[in-house]
Amino acid sequence: MRAYWRFPAVCMLAGTALGCGGADAPPADRATESVGPASQGTLARDAADTLASAAAVVPGTPPGGLYQWVSEIRSGISLLPAEAARDVAAAQRRALELYTTRQEYLEKYWGPRGRLISGGALGSAVEKAEHEFHDLMQLLVAAPAPDTGRVHLAVASLDAALQRVIEAAEAAGVPLVGGPADSGAKPQ
């Protein structure tokens, strides 16, 4: 089990930047509510609203889609070992920016509970990349300054996980060009 609790600043900053679990959180399970004649119409409207919002574009979604976002993450993280050796704070900022503006959206659309495709091999691959990204960010905030060799290994591990995301997306038939906004989904 990973000890993510050791680095709450990274998690808090990412959560604050994205509002994780806020408006995008799924509605509470209503299976235990009594369903009388008066409430059946409300539940039907709620179900329709939930289905409509599942196809909606998440506010703040960057342009592009899965392939572009993965490519941008891979390009950005390739700079981290050298950047961490020169300026660890800049490397931390770059990693956090890539995480909050690309990786989190991969998870929102194609992760285990994704809006476009959820679960399966793609969801697992996105989740694995998420864990590798957390490991990299934790390494970058470790004191004393991280060893460049360890940063390089963490980048290579994340890069390999992102390659598996591309492979799983191809196997699932996910279009690698275009993005959620190109799928006909409407902004919320």
Broad shape: elongated
Please report the distance between the alpha carbons of the first and last residues: 36 Å
Radius of gyration: 19 Å
Beta strand count: 0
Average of pLDDT: 76
Instruction: Specify the biggest β-sheet.
Output: none
Low confidence ranges: 1-54, 184-188
Number of helices, counting only DSSP H or I runs of 4 residues or more:
7
Report the β-strand fraction as a percent range.
under 5%
Please identify the structural class as seen in this structure.
mainly alpha
Specify the helix fraction band.
55-70%
Q: Could you give the order of the helices and strands?
A: HHHHHHH
Attribute tags:
single chain; 188 residues; mainly alpha; 7 helices
Describe the secondary-structure layout.
Layout: H1 8-18, H2 37-54, H3 66-78, H4 80-86, H5 88-110, H6 120-141, H7 148-172
Helix pairs in contact: 1-5, 3-5, 3-7, 4-5, 4-7, 5-6, 6-7
What can you tell me about this protein's structure?
The chain has helices spanning 8-18, 37-54, 66-78, 80-86, 88-110, 120-141, 148-172. The protein is an all-alpha fold and 188 residues long. α4 packs antiparallel against α5 (88-110) and α6 runs antiparallel to α7. The two termini are 36 Å apart. The relative contact order is 0.16.
What would you say about this model in short?
This protein is an all-alpha fold.
